[in-house]
Design brief:
With about 250 residues, the chain is of the alpha/beta class. About 30% of the residues lie in helices and about 30% in strands.
Length: about 250
């Protein structure tokens, strides 16, 4: 109770800045650390939508025997990805859109800050358009000689379905998926978070955690969150009780 009151006081103080203190376990890093403490049987991580590689850089020390490959479509990201590759020998990268087809040219809307860029977006709100070549996750895994079990991380702004369609072989050996999911169809083809849960259920995965919920500023309604999925036979699903069984 005292911790809750202190957190409430801190959140009220931070509210004018648009910031909030999370309860431990609602942030990406702490959930990844718990996953790594429980299961080191991940041979390869494919970081789809790698940006500057910051997620891989944070996660790599938690999985010291795991290879990481970042996938990002923006040439502007290459200096950061190259720098991470020099610092971390287990990291490599591919500059392309992860998609369903090999070497398909796809339209991409690119934001000034790069972080808001997305496949399937339009040239509104000052976004510029460019064509980028795609590669399937299966082809990337083969090209980089990656082995399972896999962890797939998605930060792909609504383009998840084509990526999953191009990852059929990889998914057969995937143990975990970390995916940014959405509560609004911000680009055509975006699945809402509950629709993504249903799609991945059909592929043998079940959600076991969520982190980093984000509200949109206009009305403070839920905009997005990252969901953690594991195979349905994972140990985390062996009991349904709130407390750990004796």
């Amino acid at each position: 109770m005292i911790k809750r009151k202190l957190a409430d006081l801190a959140n009220r103080a931070l509210q004018p800045l648009g910031l909030q203190i999370y309860h431990e376990g609602l942030d990406m890093e702490s959930v990844l650390r718990r996953l790594a403490a429980r299961d080191q049987n991940v041979a390869s991580v494919i970081d789809i939508g790698a940006s500057t590689g910051r997620w891989s850089a944070m996660t790599a020390p938690m999985f010291p025997n795991t290879r990481f490959v970042g996938v990002d479509p923006l040439q502007e990201r290459e200096p950061d990805l190259q720098a991470l590759k020099r610092r971390q020998p287990r990291f490599d990268y591919v500059l392309c859109v992860a998609g369903e087809q090999e070497h398909e040219l796809v339209q991409m809307a690119v934001s000034d800050d790069l972080d808001g860029s997305t496949v399937g977006g339009s040239a509104e709100h000052g976004l510029s358009m460019r064509q980028v070549s795609s590669r399937s996750v299966d082809a990337i895994a083969a090209m980089k000689d990656l082995r399972g079990p896999f962890l797939l991380k998605f930060d792909t702004h609504g383009f998840e379905v084509p990526i999953l369609q191009g990852a059929a072989k990889t998914l057969e050996q995937t143990q975990y998926i970390v995916m940014e999911t959405y509560n609004y169809r911000h680009v055509p083809g975006t699945l809402l978070f509950w629709e993504m849960c249903a799609l991945l259920d059909g592929k043998g995965f079940r959600c076991f955690n969520l982190v980093d919920p984000m509200q949109r500023p206009a009305d403070r309604s839920l905009w997005q969150m990252d969901l953690f999925f594991a195979r349905k036979d994972n140990a985390v699903f062996r009991h349904d009780s709130f407390r750990k069984p004796r």
